[in-house]
Design a protein that fits this description.
With 185 residues, the protein is an alpha+beta fold. Helix content is 30%, strand content 12%. Helix 2 crosses helix 4.
């Protein structure tokens, strides 16, 4: 039998690849290999949510223009990502770091995930946060994206274990959607 491996460099969107959404610290026989359906779900989250989160966070909190002011034209949809390259340098972008995306049933069990976890279908991501302030900013931006684009999401959880903070965000396909907001810290 041939070993199956993930094409970790496969682009899911401009700034996200399959490797970062399937990485795990758990070594399993199944290799945490996603199906084509799972990959499509991951692409949808990356293209419709994570790219916008990345752009908006960098626009509001990272990029500096002449004089150190924040850009006044910050907005929350992917059409706004077209920017003047002379004003914002790509090297100044702060990436969105994914702690967990897709989890195979074995990886999910080892991670202590629920049997109905959206991670099992590639419909959820856990986003690393530098602290509570960044976690709240990410959540606020995601809420603004939902309002501005009229898209629903399923779960928005602000989580902390000790000093480690992360934001759990889930979006199911339209035919299986339920909007749940849990903001907990």
């Amino acid at each position: 039998m041939n070993e199956v491996i993930v094409n970790s460099k496969m682009k899911l969107s401009e700034h996200f690849n399959l490797g970062e959404l399937t990485k795990t610290k758990h070594q399993t026989a199944d290799g945490n290999i996603p199906s084509h359906v799972v990959i499509e779900n991951l692409k949808r989250i990356c293209e419709n949510w994570l790219e916008d989160l990345r752009y908006s966070y960098n626009t509001l909190y990272v990029w500096n223009v002449e004089g150190g002011a924040r850009p006044k034209d910050a907005c929350y949809h992917r059409d706004a990502r077209m920017r003047n390259e002379n004003t914002h340098e790509a090297e100044e972008d702060e990436p969105i770091i994914i702690n967990s995306g897709y989890r195979s049933p074995t990886v999910n069990k080892l991670a202590g995930g629920s049997n109905t976890s959206n991670h099992l279908t590639g419909c959820a991501v856990d986003i690393r946060c530098a602290g509570k302030e960044q976690m709240i900013r990410y959540a606020s931006i995601l809420l603004d994206i939902a309002d501005g684009t009229k898209q629903d999401y399923d779960e928005l959880l602000l989580e902390q274990h000790g000093s480690v903070c992360w934001l759990h965000f889930a979006v199911r396909p339209k035919d299986n959607r339920r909007r749940i907001e849990f903001l907990k810290v």
